Each structure stands twice: as C-alpha cells, then as structure tokens.
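User: What would this chain look like folded?
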Amino acid sequence: MCGIVGCILKEKKDVAPILFECIKNLEYRGYDSIGLATYDNAIHVKKGKGDIRKVDREQNFSNMKGFYGIAHTRWASTGKPTHENAHPHLDDSNTVAVVHNGTLENYLEIREDLIEEGHEFISTTDTEVIPHLIKKFMDEGLDLEGAVRKCTKKLEGSYAIVAMSKDEPNKLVATRKDSPLIIAFGKDGYFVASDTPAVLDYAREVIRPKEGEIAILTKDGIEIHDKNGKKVRKTPQHIDWSPEMAKKEGFDHFMIKEITEQSLAVKHTLGQKANIERIIKEIGDVKRICFVACGTSYHASITGKYLIESLAGIACDVVIASESKYTARTWDEDTLVIFISQSGETFDSLMALKEANKTSNTLAIVNVAGSAMTEEAKYFIQTQAGPEIGVAATKTYIAQLTAIYLFAGLMAGNDKIIEELSRVPKYIDEVMKEKDKIKEISKRYDFAENAFYLGRGFSYPIALEGALKLKEITYIHAEGYAAGELKHGPLALIDEKVPVIVIIPPGDDYKKTMVNLEEVKARGAIILTVCAKGDKKAADNSIDVIEINSEVTDIIAPLVYAVPLQLISYYVTCDKGYDPDKPRNLAKVITV
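Assistant: Here's the prediction, encoded as structure tokens.
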C-alpha cells in the first residue's frame, strides 16, 4: 500500500515543497518510508526510511531543484522497509525514475531476464524492474509514453505508475491497473496522485483514468490516451471537499473528528434516497442477493443480510471478498451482487466485482465518486461521508449502513424504517454529548489483554465491529460473538480478568441476551453494557452502563449503538499512548 504524487508546474519554480506537502496528506494510507525525485538537468532523488518529518530533517526535501517531479510513501509488501527499497526507483543509468503502487506477480522472472542482459539492481522490490524496462524500451527507440505502454504489457499484477526520464524532460507519464490513480488540474500546475486528499490544497478538478489509459502531464496541460495511443476526452469532476475537510480542525486526532461527523454523514447519505429508488426500479425482480466485502464493510454487509431477509424476504448471503471465488460459480442472472468498500478501490472486492459482472447485476456502495468500483459496477451508490483520514473506519461505516438501510427499506416498501432513519442523526448527537462520561468509563478498561463483545440479531454485527475497532487500534485481543454461541466455546475463557461488552437494545432478543449477560456475570466477568436509557435490569447486572435513547429499536441499533463502541476504542487507545490514526501494520486502502 503506497501513496503516490506527481506534479509539473506551469512556471519554472521548485516543485519539491509542493510535492512534500501533497505526500504528507497521504500519511493516513500507512507507510514506512518516503522519497522524492525532481528534475533539473538531471534526476535528483532523496529518500529514507521512517517518519516523514524525520526523513525530511535528514534529507531536506525542500532544497531539491526542478519544476516537476514525483513523490512516494511506501508500505512494504515486496522487500523490507529499508532505504534501498524506498521509492522512487531508478534504472542503473539514473535515466528513468518511477513510483509505483501495487504488487507485481512476475517481477522475479523479469528481474532474472534483465540481469542476464546486464542490468544491475540495488533493491529487493518488485518496483525496480519498471524503470529498467522503461529504459530498455526507450533505448530501442520508443518515447516515454510508448516505453511505459510496452512495459505494462510485460507486467502481471496490480500497479499505478508515474514515470519520468531525463531523456524526455518536462514530462510525467502515468498509468494504472487495479490500483487507484487520479489526475488533477490546478491553477499553478498539473497533478497525479493515488488519492484526492493529496492535492486538495492545490487542485479541485479531477479525472480518473480507466485501466490501461495513459496520462501525459506537461507544463502546458494533460492528455489522456487509450491503449492504442488515441487521445481520449474526459470531463473533470469538481471535488467539493475543502482542504480543511481532510485536516483535524482542532481535534486531537482524525478518528475523533470523524466519529463526531457521523450524524452529518447519515444526513447527507439520506439524500441518496431518490438515486436508490431509481436503482431498485431499474434492477427489477431479484431472487437472491449476495454481499461481498472486507473488514468493517463486511460487518455492514451482515447487517444488510439481516435487514433484507427480515424486511424483503429475499435470500441473502455475505461473502468475504478474498474468499468469494468459492461462491462466484453460484452467481447467476437472478442474483444481485452488492459490493461495499469505503475507497471503491479494495483489491479483493474489485477482482470479485469483475467476476460477478460476467453473470449478474452488480451494485457498489462506496464513498469515493469515480473510483474503480463505480466504473466497474452496473450500479453504484455513493455514501456521503466525505474524506476519511483515520485508518480505522468510523463515519464511512455508519454511512454504508445508512445506504444499506435505505436500500433495504425501499426495496421492502417499509416506510417505518425510512422514517426511523431520519431520527438517527439526533440519536448519534445524543451519544456524542455523553463522550466525557464514556471517556471516564474507558479508563477502567485499558488494562485488558482480552475482551469479548456479545450481541444477538442486529446486535451481532455491532459486536463484531466493536471488537474489530478495539483490536485495530488498542492492540487488545477482542472477539465479537453471537451471544447464543457462548456455551459453544467462549464461556471457557470468561473470568474476572475479562471485560465483556454486551449490546442489548430493546426488542425481540432482549430476554435471551439478558440470560447471556447473567451467564458471564456468574463467571465473574467485568461487564460493560450498552442498553436503552432506564434499563434497570441491565444496569443492575453490569459494572458500567452506556445508555442510548430508548426510542432506538433493535433493528435500527447498528447505526447508533456502534458509536459508543468506537468512542471506547478511541479513548482506550489514547490512554495507552498509541496513535489511533496510525495503527501498526494497517493501512487505509488495501490494493494488494
């Protein structure tokens, strides 16, 4: 997982400070090293392992000369995090520089062939073969665009590539396959990046090249060429996210800022009602639905399954994207396959989407307009969460759920659910007013080494998501369980050292969940219950209680009860001295 930026300015002034500011805006994607390359009569490269600011102090990126260049933050996939493996990478004559996001499956074979031809390598990355191939093809007489095009024909796997060559100065060439890439038009220059927040300070008009298309950036403008080299006309999309939307705005971390923005995310996503009604009408009769997703989006999908089966009576499956090949053979013309992804670029989901398109209607629910999945899916719903910078999904999860509830309610013709959705922002704001109390409660749980989250019915996916948030950012081992599964193994692990978080809204499953609560209490567990306001029975059987408006039914609970669990994880993380925005070993968009 990597961050990519390229920029060529209209006027000849140094680009390095702009590249550095842009690449800093992609820190949220996760990284272990950073590097820049600029051109001024020669290609200049500075790079290093570690924190962006630390490497900058060592390398002094702002002193680099040249009015165009490329920048990169790397999250190691092939090759360890080292100085040598940091991008940009050069060929052995320092003629071509490249940054790359993705994973090449056949790089070892290419590398061996190039070594036999006399090429020398200094890194253990897959990326380094790219500048060598480009230089080889330019030596055969191709220009930079032609060499990049021929190079990609040799590559197997995923890539977003930006290249520059001293043999063809004043030009950047970029292309993509199964990895995100945007091209942006700014007042002072032209940009290429792996994600929109990188360039929001400098450019707001964006196009997203399709797979195999090549973008050529010069100081005079941008051209997009198709796989045959023919010029393609594209209309830029205006991004109405302000640069401030991608910054902390006085909050300690992006995560708490984004948790606070969740009521707005619901309000804005409810505005998709007319679009969803149109999609449902066009899709027509559906005999089966299959959700495909990863991580947090997978938990949103489980809620979707429960909603659609209980409200619309349509058989529904939920499949982890990386495991979908075992289900894909059952997809047919009567199946609607729904893909859920925050970025719209999640690699496993994108591959499954391409497979589903061969047999079925497909619908993508994503937060980024123009992302790969919106291009591939036959229909798409864009959630309205705005940019999410924190690695742990919060507001995009709630926005995904909102879109799913709208879809299920409209498909079932259930006006009651649609009416209840309109009150969700108020319920979330009520939870946020209790954040100081939740912060105090969290201080009593930072000791834990293990934790269990329990819920039944619609509360089961809340338990899964609550446990995921805790393990993602606090590094406490946590598991979410359907409460009825306690006696099938987990109960053996419950003792007086284990916190158990019980999600128990009012509804059909309340009594059975209360029995499970009493079971863990009998084993001495430390119980934190999230329940309806005034639930004396739950309070009497718990150490701590977080109360939710009693109007929130069990069906609508996932949209509201998840919020205090996010806050608990956030505050425990802060108490432990970790950065909730940058959990170790994780990145925002998984494209490999």
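The chain has a mean pLDDT of 93. If you want, I can go into more detail on any region.
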